[in-house]
Amino acid sequence: MPKLQRLTAEEAEKKLLKAGFQHIRSKGSHRIYQKDQERFVLPFHKGKILHPKIIKDLLAVINKSSAKN
């Protein structure tokens, strides 16, 4: 199984926005994005690498939302 990409919050945000998600609100250091019924909460700590589980969930929600279109 190939390794997941190592992404910062800024890079993950770019991927979400490119996939059509919209930033709907922020609470503390978390930003919430939504596209149709799909919602994703992104912990936004500038310059830090995201945990692999978060990246896995991010890629899954992007693939799921793009498969619907």
Detail the topology: elements first, then pairings.
Blueprint: H1 9-18, E1 22-27, E2 30-35, E3 38-43, H2 52-68
Antiparallel strand pairs: 1-2, 2-3
Q: Tell me the strand order in the biggest sheet.
A: 1-2-3
Q: Outline the biggest β-sheet.
A: 3 strands, antiparallel
What's the shape?
A: globular
Number of DSSP E strands: 3
The percent range for helix content is 25-40%
Please write the string of helix (H) and strand (E) elements. HEEEH
Low-confidence spans: none
Number of helical segments?
A: 2
Q: If you compute it from the alpha carbons, what radius of gyration comes out, rounded to the nearest whole angstrom?
A: 12 Å
Mean pLDDT: 91
Label the structural class: alpha+beta
Strand content: 25-35%
* Separation, N- and C-terminal Cα atoms: 27 Å
